[in-house]
Amino acid sequence: KHLEDKRNKVTVGGLDVHPTEKALVVHYEVEASILGESGGHMLGERKEGQKIIRMKSLSPSTDVGALAKKVLEECKMIPASRLPQVEQLLYYLQNRKSSPVESKEKRTVKPKELTPFEGIELNEEASITRVDEYIELLYEGIPEKIRGSALILQLARNPDNLEELLHNETALGALARVLREDWKQSVDLATIIIYIFFCFSSFSQFHGVVSHYKIGALCMSVVEHELKRYDAWREELRKKNKSAPENGSLRRDQDKALRKYHGLLAKQEQLLRVSLYLLLNLAEDTRTELKMRNKNIVALLVKVLERDDEELLVLVVSFLKKLSIFLENKNDMAEVDTVERLARLVPCKHEDLLNLTLRLLLNLSFDSGLRAKMVEVGLLPKLTALLGNDNNRQMAMRILYHISMDDRFKGMFVYTDCIPQLMQMLYEHGEEEIETELISICINLAANKKNAQLMCEGDGLKMLMKRALKMKDCLLMKMIRNISQHDGQTKSLFIDYVGDLAAEIKAEEEEEWVLECLGTLANLTIPDLDWELVLKEYNLVPYLKDRLKPGSAEDDLILEVVIMIGTVSMDDACAVMLAKSGIIPALIELLNEAPAYLIDLMHDKNAEIRKVCDNTLDIIAEYDEEWGRKIQSEKFRFHNNQWLEMVESRQADESEPYLYDNDNDRTDLFYSSSPPKTIRFGCSSPDFTVVRISTNSQVSVVFN
Predict the structure, then answer these.
(1) Which of 228, 429, 478, 644 is spaced 20 to 30 A from 334 at the CA atom?
(2) Which residues of the chain have pLDDT under 70?
(3) HEC profile for 114-180?
(4) pTM as predicted
(5) Record's InterPro entries (predicted)?
(6) Mind listing the domains of the chain with CATH numbers?
(7) Is the dihedral of CA 251, 256, 261, 262 positive or negative?
């Protein structure tokens, strides 16, 4: 029947602002109707959509009313009745606080979408109805195969055609076969066919078909082979450059060879890019990613980092960043020159590449060995220079924070302009809350004496103290506390602030705040300071004495109180005053709790802590018989539990009964070398204790 008319009806639904950009979002619905000759409704279809109207010219001085009218003039689908709503949304956009740094941080940087590569586009237009003709071309010579696959690629680049191509097993099978057999013969052919499968890999639901034809494994082989070819080309070019004399004829030959090399390189990078992009898509599945790791994907990607093509580098760094979240992949990156090759990309003019490189370095910086490598290759001054870049400041600061955690590298910050920049940032914050990364790195760096001196230059300490006391900023006071621990000129600068700090030590203040102020005061071992006057003027003795009572405060605060008492006791007059106040019995009572605390730490995971506790407990046991018996009993209990756990675990592993005489590789923990098998601890041992293990693997402890 003759169709006469087709009409579209557009209905505007909701109007809203864009979540991150200065733009309006218009939601609409299109109702398409096809009318017959008589004007009757024959066929209808509804489709929802949205239109984004960007307001690039919107500024604080913009006339919102006039701009709203202009929006309605330009966007005809919005009815005039919605003018007040448009004005209201524009006013909201005009006054919405924008945070460029934050928006840059939150945005996801992805590799640029693939576009038709040079040399693979055809003048003719492909048709989905002629796919069988294109398949026939895949059975001809290389030129015909290139033409046939290029026509199929035209179709595959339109997502609407993928479903139909998916069901054409003949086409996909032929493409996979040609790729398997001929990829070494033609870079163009390999690039086109992998591109076709890349189009499928862009959608998770089509990953199955790509895996079915083992395209991922083929791509791994292609990448590995091409990287070997690249090395061979470079070696050949190097030999020609070395051997070519300075005469015109050979120089022209050499220039010709160089041009050929660059042409080959450009095509190879197209092939590498499409192959790696396909692998990146397939790596959404962690099982597939594990297979890639087993085929050494990390080493291949790191090898590509020496290239200069920026889009290829964006793709490779994106891939490495994705892989780096797993420990095994991070360890693989540590074994090859990953950090060295990334260092040359910092800084670079390509904004996305720089951002991705910093994100990858941040992931790697959780490893202490890789942090050391970053310092070794000279990244510290490069990262410091990025603190002035609004787009990358946050990432650079996070990496610098990780580096600043290591005592080996704290002193190296002195030789950069990092600390002056950090102090300037602190100053510029005014009364706003300081970013966590900024104050954290300052706290770490303040633990180094030279850094602390640099921070106090000029009015540095004055600015820090003024802000900390005004805002009662615990983290800033923690930084000040770290500065105060260093002997020399820095410590004497605090004399002017002793009164301010002492005034903050009150029961009604937050404990965390008092802890930092008290810790700072306790660090001020200054001979000329009249501590007696300070204690009296600010009535600190009662506070110190109250905090020594068991359970009156957290352990950290009690520790600082003890240190503070030690500091002020250097003043003889203060020592006498404290003795008269009755503070000494409180200290002794506190000391009596120490062995129990040390016993708890005796089994700590940290070997150094265990060693210190053992040595201290041995001394206590030597001078106090009662505590000696308790300590010995606790050691016995712990080691006997270890023995029981070991027996039970071996019973679970072995079906046959566990026999003591057959296998005991940890006897040194429990027994001396001479019979009878007696457990020995510390300086003395129990009267006589034997652990008997019967043939039925039951353990019994007998005290004689």
Answers:
(1) 228
(2) 1-9, 32-47, 97-110, 112-121, 243-251, 651-704
(3) CCCCCCCCCCCCCCHHHHHHHHHHCCCCHHHHHHHHHHHHHHHCCHHHHHHHHCCHHHHHHHHHHHH
(4) 0.73
(5) ARM-like (IPR011989), ARM-type_fold (IPR016024), Armadillo (IPR000225), KAP3 (IPR008658)
(6) 6-95 (no CATH), 130-242+254-278 (1.25.10), 296-405 (1.25.10.10)
(7) positive
